[in-house]
Amino acid sequence: MRVLEVDHPLVAHKLTVLRDRNTPSPVFRQLTEELVTLLAYEATREVRTEPVEIETPVTRTVGTAFTKPTPLVVPILRAGLGMLEGMTKLVPTAEVGFLGMARNEETLEAITYAERLPADLTGRQVFVLDPMLATGGTLREAVKFLFARGASDVTCICLLAAPEGLQALQSELAEANVTIVVASIDERLNEKAYIVPGLGDAGDRLYGVAG
Length: 211
Ligand SMILES: O=P(O)(O)OC[C@H]1O[C@H](OP(=O)(O)OP(=O)(O)O)[C@H](O)[C@@H]1O
Ligand SMILES: O=c1cc[nH]c(=O)[nH]1
Ligand SMILES: [Mg+2]
Hints:
Blueprint: E1 2-5, H1 9-19, H2 25-43, E2 49-55, E3 60-66, E4 72-77, H3 84-90, E5 95-96, E6 98-103, E7 110-116, E8 125-129, E9 132-133, H4 137-148, E10 153-161, H5 163-173, E11 178-185, E12 188-189, E13 195-196, H6 202-207
Parallel strand pairs: 1-11, 4-5, 4-6, 4-8, 8-10, 9-10, 10-11
Antiparallel strand pairs: 2-3, 6-7, 12-13
Helix pairs in contact: 1-2, 2-3
Bound molecules: 1-O-pyrophosphono-5-O-phosphono-alpha-D-ribofuranose (PRP), uracil and magnesium ion.
């Protein structure tokens, strides 16, 4: 498993506004989308491509095309849905599958309540979108599920990660072909397993308080 913390002033600035408790949902959604586009630029460095011959108005030349099957993008509902548009803007030909997962706030166990993915992911490159990597339980389950379906490698794009969650994932997925691309590795988890300084509950800030 590899971890890449993206160090860029544009990322740091947008993240600062996102963290601010006074930032309203519409601005939060817009900034999330913009941040994902910046992170996706780094996260797609290893996307599989092949040469393709094309004709410009001047001559024939060899360019680059995504190798088929194209990457699969998997937002983890709810909060990951806020990252989808930013990703598909950059990789418009990607297919999209969905995982609905929620962390039980008492036991911190991640449960899967919805799944809409291709049955066979053999050889597929998969990009998972989830803004928060706290204990790491949600991403661990998601990644294991994708490998069980045959994915060749999984890249998770997150806004914030806690060191505790990264360590937990590292100890379970050390040898796995997993990359975590994150805007900031924060200080720690608090007693409720929220990321500190963090940005609060990403799903609630994007979409309002869940019932
Ligand atoms: O690393 P973990 O400790 O598992 O926590 C992280 C998870 O918690 C949040 O989702 P949540 O369960 O709040 O669902 P939501 O997106 O519907 O709000 C977040 O979007 C991650 O999926
Ligand atoms: O800080 C946190 C931790 C888990 N889920 C969130 O949305 N935020
Ligand atoms: Mg939530």
